Give the backbone structure.
Amino acid sequence: MAAAPRPALSAEFALIERCFTRPTPHTLLGIGDDAALLAPPAGEVLAITTDTLVSGVHFFADADPYLLGRKALAVNLSDLAAMAATPRWALLALTLPQVDDWCRSFAQGLHELAAEHTVELIGGDTTHGPLSITITAIGSVPPGQSLRRDAARAGDDIWLSGRTGEAALALRWLQGQIQLSAADQPACLQRLHNPIPRVELALALRGLAHAAIDVSDGLVQDLGHICRRSGVAAWLDLAAIPRAPVFSNLPATLQQQCLLGGGDDYELLFTAPATRSAELAAVAQALRCPLTRIGRIIPGSGVQAGPLDAPHPLDMPGYDHFA
Ligand code: ADP
Ligand code: MG
């Protein structure tokens, strides 16, 4: 006997089923009910974070949907990494002007990055309107092993993964503010459109680092958050800030703006006791993730530079939605 035809789904539910529903073996109940059901890993606490990307603010309206799907999840995984949480689940609240192939490519990018980190999409919301993407990511971490902004201590070294500035260069180039040679464009655009969250590094920093933040709004501004929350100051060794070769031919002010105030870097900025530097070097080597010591936590407040015995405040505004 032929199976009874299934009643047609509305466009909204057909879209959810076609684009977003995938197997979720690590979830008690995923997409399809009023809420998902999760069993947190035994003995761990949950870390939850959310980030919105708005068309025309965080990305150009004609941005590649595949890369946007990756980036929307990546920025959330970067926040979980900054807490040293293992990423596990995500929810997607999507506002779309229309249902079309855009969504298929977007979902493909999102699911690909999710699969790379064994993250399961377990729910969300789909509405009609100007394009906006909100992802909520959930991870887990043993209690006491998360890397909080308020845990930096005077005497800690300040470390940076990878290097900052290239995404900001790409953005300035796309906006027509600067020239970039054809040879330099691909690497900078890759940093802007396809950031790689530092998940592996974050997990290796458990028990090693004190405080951490992911650099999304500019290195100095984000370091300032650690200072405020921890009640300390940060001295930055400006000569030690790693920089991509592309910066060597650029004016000094543009270099500083991009390296220290750029945004969209998604590197990890963390503090650790000086006694752990050999272990950190071993982590860097094992993960092939460059780590650079760029300063020191000192008593006081704010981010400072100049001679260590007579530092001065370093003012480098980062991204501010309401400035
Ligand atoms: P409700 O009306 O009860 O809020 P919905 O009809 O909005 O539920 O959604 C139906 C199911 O599809 C829910 O399980 C919801 O989590 C899931 N869902 C809706 N939109 C998305 C999306 N963009 N991505 C993933 N899951 C989604
Ligand atoms: Mg409901």
User: Anything to note?
Assistant: The longest strand covers residues 86-96. The CA atoms of residues 80 and 298 lie 27 Å apart.
